[in-house]
TrEMBL record:
Transmembrane segments: 20-39
GO CC annotations, alphabetized: plasma membrane
Coarse class of the protein's main subcellular location: membrane
EC number: 3.4.21.89
Name the record gives this protein: Signal peptidase I
Taxonomy, superkingdom: Bacteria
Length: 199
């Protein structure tokens, strides 16, 4: 019967190396799992969500709450760019499945009621006047959302490529709810504390 391998001084360095490799692999796996299923960091490169979110702000998007309930109007969410799925966009949900969206004289209406939107920077512009190349030919106002469609708009309405241009977003494209600004330090806090965050 073979004797068990002895724990000699010569074997101990290799054991330490293997233990550290295991710890590193486990840490990387945990970090990837957290990013995939719990929270994910983002940096905002554009002005489309001013003044709620500033250019260069870094924030966390949380993914847990939408496992329990569907996204709600007023939520600031991240989603895959329909024109470039590898890019993540961040906008505010204006209308949810089954609701009717309309834009008249620069004002937004949902189910016939004009929205009170103190967080917007300028009224919505006519899509043909700006970024005409991105205009969605399928959008005719008033537009009623399908069972799996959400209407997204940036708070900075005069400088945002959103559902006015690329149409509604499918539920499966929504990746997280904007939750916590962690950079810069003087802006640190939840989006609930930001001036444009609807509660």
């Amino acid at each position: 019967m073979p004797e068990p391998t002895k724990d000699t001084p010569q074997n101990r360095p290799w054991r330490s190396v293997l233990e550290w490799v295991f710890i590193v692999v486990l840490a990387v796996a945990c970090a990837m799992a957290v990013r995939a299923f719990v929270v994910e960091p983002f940096e905002v490169p554009t002005e489309s969500m001013i003044s709620t979110i500033q250019v260069g702000d870094r924030l966390l998007g949380e993914k847990i709450s939408y496992l329990a309930h569907d996204p709600q109007a007023g939520d600031v969410v991240t989603f895959s760019d329909p024109e470039n799925p590898s890019t993540t966009l961040i906008k505010r949900i204006i209308a949810t499945p089954g609701q009717t969206i309309d834009v008249k004289d620069g004002e937004v209406y949902v189910d016939g009621t004009k929205l009170d939107e103190p967080y917007t920077q300028g009224k919505p512009t006519n899509p043909i006047e700006r970024h005409a190349d991105f205009l969605s030919s399928d959008i005719i106002y008033p537009y009623t959302l399908g069972q799996d469609e959400y209407w997204m708009m940036g708070d900075n309405r005069t400088n945002s490529l959103d559902s006015r241009y690329f149409g509604p977003i499918k539920r499966q494209s929504i990746t997280s709810r904007g939750w916590f600004i962690f950079w810069p330090l003087n802006d640190i806090g939840t989006l609930a504390d930001a001036p444009g965050r609807a509660s």
